[in-house]
Write a structure and sequence with these properties.
This protein is α/β, with parallel strands linked by helices. Helix 9 packs across helix 13.
């Protein structure tokens, strides 16, 4: 049995990132003996304060593989890896950089991206990246593109729209646009979403934009199914789970061309790529609204399954990476 210690930040309101939890659970379901280690505290001093806790956990659990999520978690793991295999999931801005409100990468994050690239090239035993865009930016040859998977069985699936609207309390006389993120996160570019929606309001459209985050999987599934469309206006992404989750619910989507979104969409009708121009975003929202009213559901779920982006398929790909590194 493969023994793996997942190492990630635990500083968010709800502790571990739900994406990390779901990936770990899918690996456990496929026979991996896995435990979670959460880093408490921020900055260099905050991370280093977890040194003795992580050392003790490694000694007690004795994993074969340390699997760090985000390069910042890998910094700490590097200090304690010894003969263990260190695999790092590079999630997005740790290589692509963080953005200002004008969309430009900050100088500090650009420097951190260079550091992360150096560490990956010199010290990480293997890097899992989320899109071909990230693959092209990462110097290390020891890497593989493995997008985040989505639980299409118990997590995200179509339910009756009227039922979902009642569960989340949307006003069905309005167009309900879903924005699944905290608008304070600059890379999510909420300003563009707001500008586009206001353009449509000036045209007389009754439309609401709902900012949703820190929800349970069950509640988030209800929001997806209640919405007329999902809107993603990010400056950059790795492999945004919200896209795959919304597609698994067969709802229309408007998204900027970031990460692997274009590839995930494919030729799926009802899923629209947009530029960073507010009018173009508004025009695509109108197309998505028209699709939602006339056709209602996309075939997004079928596309997710055909690409092998369900949690089960992704878990098996990660296990194959573990086996590959353990046999070398």
């Amino acid at each position: 049995m493969i023994k793996v210690l997942f190492i990630s930040s635990g500083n968010s309101k709800d502790g571990i990132n739900p994406i990390v939890i779901r990936q770990g659970e899918s690996l456990i379901a496929n026979g991996v003996k896995l435990e979670f280690f959460t880093i408490k505290g921020k900055g260099v001093i905050g991370y280093l304060s977890n040194f003795s806790r992580l050392r003790d956990r490694i000694i007690e659990f004795n994993p074969q593989i340390l699997h760090a999520h985000y390069c910042s978690s890998a910094y700490l793991a590097l200090l304690l890896k010894g003969s263990k295999i260190l695999i790092t999931s590079i999630m997005g801005d740790d290589i692509l950089g963080s953005r200002k409100l004008n969309g430009k990468v900050t100088i500090l994050s650009a420097l951190i991206s260079i550091l992360n690239n150096l560490l990956s090239f010199l010290f990480f035993d293997y890097s899992i990246i989320k899109s071909n865009q990230m693959k092209n930016r990462l110097w290390s040859r020891k890497k593989e593109v493995v997008p985040n998977g989505v639980d299409i069985e118990k997590g995200f699936f179509p339910i009756d729209k009227k039922l979902a609207i009642g569960q989340v309390g949307f006003n069905s006389s309005f167009v309900n646009v879903l924005f699944v993120s905290d608008k304070k996160r600059r890379e999510k570019n909420y300003q563009l979403a707001d500008e586009a929606v206001n353009i449509l309001r000036l045209k007389g459209l009754r439309i609401n934009i709902h900012q949703v985050y820190n929800q349970t999987t069950e509640k988030l599934n209800q929001y997806y199914n209640a919405a007329d469309l999902l809107l993603l206006t990010s400056f950059h992404e790795g492999s945004p789970n919200v896209i795959k989750e919304a597609m698994s619910c067969n709802i229309p989507i408007v998204s900027t061309d970031v990460g692997d979104v274009k590839w995930v969409f494919g030729e799926t009708k009802g899923c629209f790529l947009t530029t960073f121009d507010a009018k173009d975003v508004a025009d695509n929202i109108e197309l998505a609204i028209k699709f939602s009213r006339e056709i209602v559901k996309t075939q997004g779920r079928r596309r997710v399954i055909s690409l092998g982006l369900d949690s089960e398929s992704i878990a098996k790909r990660i296990i194959n990476i573990y086996k590959l590194k353990l046999t070398k």
